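Bumping my old thread because nobody answered last time. Still need a sequence for this structure:
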């Protein structure tokens, strides 16, 4: 059988975006003011291994090349976030400075107590932790998980077992490509996989190999959202991610698609040492996504969060510099502007960290 070799680009094209009722609302509210995405147009990998994806016209997939490129880009992104955290922490007037203080405290604690698991160090990551699989098993015991037909799960390592339990339970798995570099979301189902590939499909490379990429026009209903966290308050449901804002961006996009609403449960799985009590609700930004349920290796916590969930995308909070780094949002913004016949607002200009500036 003839082998095909191809080169994939940094993002799947979105050729059409369906109109949504949120168009009538104010600017698709979701604040991206704290996001620090990297636009890396050179992201590509040559696909020429002997492994085939039967769902994609028998095209072969080079796992090693994909992983090498992913690790390189992740390292660049973490370096940029380290620069951002240092810059924002030094500016006490920055509304995001306090978040970095809590994140660093948790990351340092996990490393010091050897709670952290591979990949390490956990700084500037959604940290993998000892007992992540146990927390995932507890999550699978939730009635919200049992009745869900489609579960959106973040692509980070500590939630790998959640992705496996989703597919193994016959549910549809919706997961984003890491840092949204190769597209938007991918959909996977057990029927698309063999018994020997289901575990592989729970990895980043496996999602790229076996998943079906979708665009913003996809008609899909998500019954449960699982997100990773650096720190979370069990009394309020207030959550901090690693600081790039991908969970918020993904949430806002799903709101745009009509895939979720305020009633869609948001769950996180963390170590007990990631539970904190000093996230001030009054300092949270409008885009911050609260969690309804927390699963740790030892317990399940229902937060009854009073924090409102984001309603969409807040364009007036998104700086020109940030917008220039996020291809999907540029495409979406252009599409909406054509549909409504007017320009959407843009947030104030901002100073980017040196690494981010070099990427522009």
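Sorry it took so long. Here it is:
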């Amino acid at each position: 059988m003839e082998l095909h070799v191809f080169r994939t680009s940094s993002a799947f094209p979105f050729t059409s975006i369906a109109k949504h009722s949120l168009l009538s609302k104010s600017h698709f509210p979701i604040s991206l003011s704290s996001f620090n995405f990297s636009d890396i147009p050179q992201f590509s990998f040559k696909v020429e291994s002997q492994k085939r994806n039967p769902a994609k016209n028998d095209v072969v997939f080079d796992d090693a090349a994909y992983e090498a490129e992913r690790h390189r880009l992740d390292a660049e992104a973490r370096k940029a976030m380290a620069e951002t955290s240092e810059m924002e922490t030094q500016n006490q007037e920055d509304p995001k400075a306090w978040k970095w203080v809590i994140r660093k405290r948790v990351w340092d604690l996990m490393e010091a107590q050897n709670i952290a698991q591979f990949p390490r160090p956990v700084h500037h990551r959604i940290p993998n932790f000892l007992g992540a699989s146990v927390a995932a098993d507890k999550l699978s015991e939730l009635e919200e998980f049992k009745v869900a037909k489609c579960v959106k799960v973040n692509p980070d390592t500590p939630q790998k077992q959640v992705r496996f339990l989703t597919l193994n339970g016959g549910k549809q798995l919706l997961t984003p490509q890491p840092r949204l570099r190769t597209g938007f979301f991918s959909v996977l189902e057990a029927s698309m996989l063999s018994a020997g590939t289901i575990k592989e499909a729970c990895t980043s490379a496996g999602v790229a190999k076996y998943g079906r990429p979708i665009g913003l026009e996809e008609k899909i209903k998500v019954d449960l959202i699982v997100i990773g966290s650096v720190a979370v308050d069990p009394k309020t449901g207030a959550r901090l991610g690693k600081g790039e804002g991908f969970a918020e961006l993904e949430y806002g996009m799903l709101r745009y698609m009509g895939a979720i609403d305020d009633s869609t449960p948001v769950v996180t799985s963390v170590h007990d040492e990631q539970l904190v009590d000093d996230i001030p609700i009054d300092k949270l930004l409008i885009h911050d996504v609260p969690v309804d349920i927390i699963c740790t290796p030892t317990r399940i916590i229902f937060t009854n969060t009073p924090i409102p969930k984001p309603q969409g995308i807040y364009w007036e909070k998104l700086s020109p510099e940030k917008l220039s780094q996020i291809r999907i949002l540029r495409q979406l913004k252009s599409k909406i502007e054509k549909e409504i016949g007017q320009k959407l607002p843009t947030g104030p200009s901002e100073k980017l960290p040196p690494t981010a500036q070099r990427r522009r």
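DSSP finds ten helices and 14 strands in the chain. Let me know if any region looks off to you.
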